[in-house]
Each structure stands twice: as C-alpha cells, then as structure tokens.
Amino acid sequence: MKVWGLDRPMVIGSAHKLGLEVDHFRREGRAYAFRLIPHSSRSKYSRRTRLGHRVKACCYHGFRDFISVCFSHGADRVQSMHGDWRTEESFVHDLYRLRTLNVGSIMEPAYMVDLCDCESVA
C-alpha cells in the first residue's frame, strides 16, 4: 500500500489507532509504502484463507477503515494492489467492487468480505 500527502507519524498513528501495524515501512518517491497487517491472526481486522485458516493479514474492513482515516487526515492519494484513489469520494464509490473482489481462483472463488473475521472478534 502507498499513501501520499501524510507524514510518517500520521500514517503509523492512523494504523495504530485502528489496532493495525505497518510492516516494511519505506519511502518511495513522495509516497510512503508499507504492508498493513493486524497485530495477530486473532485480533480485529484479521482474516482467514479460503479454507478457513487464520492468517496475519488485513481484512476488507481493516483496509476500508484505514483508507478512510488517511483521507480524513488529508491524504492526497492512496494506492493498493486493488485500486488507486485520489479522493475519499472515489474510494467510497469503489467500496462495492472491493467487497465483491475475487481473491480466490476462477474454479474456487473467495471474496474479500467473506474471508473477514471481524464479527467473531469484535
């Protein structure tokens, strides 16, 4: 994930405020690039694999909340492997597509929102 227009403490603070961590934090041009992860495979915003195994990976809700917080703090742009947003409005408009994004295979589809573990942890 990459964020433009925020300083390092703001990006890390936004993640920590939600109970998330940033991993492999680095500067790439004018953006900060990093991997967003939950504190553990059993914490809020963790997700499961298609087979139901817990993994230390961020779910749809974690990405959604983090990107919203970044825009509320004045980010100029947020980019992930699933999209590139320059305004919060464009991000909100794209939420349905992200919810129904197939992160599995064609033969065995798995959708981001179905792999979420938030309801059982919250």
General description of the model:
With 122 residues, the protein is of the alpha+beta class. It has one domain. Helix content is 31%, strand content 29%. The protein is built from five helices and seven strands, in the order E-H-E-E-E-E-H-E-E-H-H-H. The strands form two sheets. The chain has a five-stranded antiparallel beta sheet with strand order 2-3-1-6-7. It has a two-stranded antiparallel ribbon with strand order 4-5. The mean pLDDT is 92.
Short description, anyone?
The chain is an alpha+beta fold and 122 residues long. The protein is 31% helix and 29% strand. It has a five-stranded antiparallel sheet with strand order 2-3-1-6-7.
Produce the secondary structure layout.
Layout: E1 2-4, H1 8-17, E2 20-28, E3 31-38, E4 46-48, E5 54-58, H2 60-72, E6 77-80, E7 83-85, H3 88-93, H4 95-99, H5 118-121
Antiparallel strand pairs: 1-3, 1-6, 2-3, 4-5, 6-7
Strand arrangement, major sheet: 2-3-1-6-7
Mean of residue pLDDT values: 92
Give the ordered list of helices and strands: EHEEEEHEEHHH
Number of helices: 5
Q: Look at the helices and sheets and give the structural class.
A: alpha+beta
Helix content: 25-40%
Spans where pLDDT lies below 50 across 5 or more residues: none
Mind telling me the C-alpha Rg? 14 Å
Count of DSSP strands: 7
